[in-house]
Every structure is written in structure tokens, then in C-alpha cells.
């Protein structure tokens, strides 16, 4: 099991953060997305998505 993976909260896809070109800040942590579509969806209603995983800077 690796710890260096992030979850796209919109579609649930799991991937390593270095592949995530799209990201957004929520509070004090970063949220990653697989595509601009997911990012736009998230940014439109961030409170709709629970914090699946937080990443430390
Ligand atoms: Zn996605």
C-alpha cells in the first residue's frame, strides 16, 4: 500500500499526485483532480464533496 496517492473527490479516481495537473486549495490543503472538468465541478460546489484525503505540503 502506498501513501503517495490522492483521490479525485468528484469522480473517485485514485492517482499519484504528480499526475494530477489540476488541483484546488480547500482550507489549508490541496485537492487534486484528474481533469479540468472535475476541477470545475468541484470549484462550483466544494462543500458538496467530503474531504476524502488531505495532503501535507
Ligand atoms: Zn475526476
Give a structural overview.
This protein is an alpha+beta fold and 57 residues long. It has one domain (6-46). Helix content is 16%, strand content 25%. The protein has 1 helix and 4 strands, in the order ββββα. The strands form 2 sheets. A two-stranded antiparallel ribbon has the order 1-2. It has a two-stranded antiparallel sheet with strand order 3-4. The protein starts with 5 loop residues before the first strand and ends in a 13-residue tail after the last helix. Residues 8, 10-11, 13, 33-35, 38 line the site of zinc ion.
Percentage of residues assigned to helices: 10-25%
Q: State the end-to-end distance.
A: 21 Å
Number of domains: 1
Strand order of the largest sheet: 1-2
- Rg for CA atoms: 10 Å
Secondary structure tally: strands? 4
Shape: globular
Instruction: Spell out the helices and strands N to C.
Output: EEEEH
Strand content: 15-25%
The secondary structure category is alpha+beta
Largest sheet: 2 strands, antiparallel
Q: Could you name the ranges where pLDDT drops below 50 across 5 or more consecutive residues?
A: none
Ions, cofactors, ligands: which are bound? zinc ion
Annotation field: number of helices: 1
Mean pLDDT: 85
